[in-house]
Design a protein that fits this description.
The protein has about 120 residues and is mostly beta strands. The protein is built from no helices and 9 strands.
Amino acid sequence: MSGLSGQVDSRSKLVGLNKTVRAYAVFSQSGSHTITGSFNVSTVDDGGSGKSDINFIVPMRNADYVVTVNHAEDTSSYGNYGVGSRVSVHRDPARQTGKCFLACTIDNSGGYQDMETVDVIVCGD
């Protein structure tokens, strides 16, 4: 991957000059919020139907990090990977250095809904 440069510290994975992945997680909101893969994520707490609190092992340097999320509503091959649904990273409660909050919903459903698979990547400096 040409063009990538920078320093890697003990709590990040290099993605570019001074821009690093500080945490990631793959988990299911169904049931016990089981994490199937992660880096710098200790637990994912169930915040209610469709809501999750992602807890970091090593806190972020500040609360101005970027969160990218993908999700799948079901478990079938080439199933509904976010079609007609959305996920939001919340600032209320306020984003914190030790955790972030997200919520998933299906458009026009009238409420939040647990997703079978949620992929979260957190980048910061």
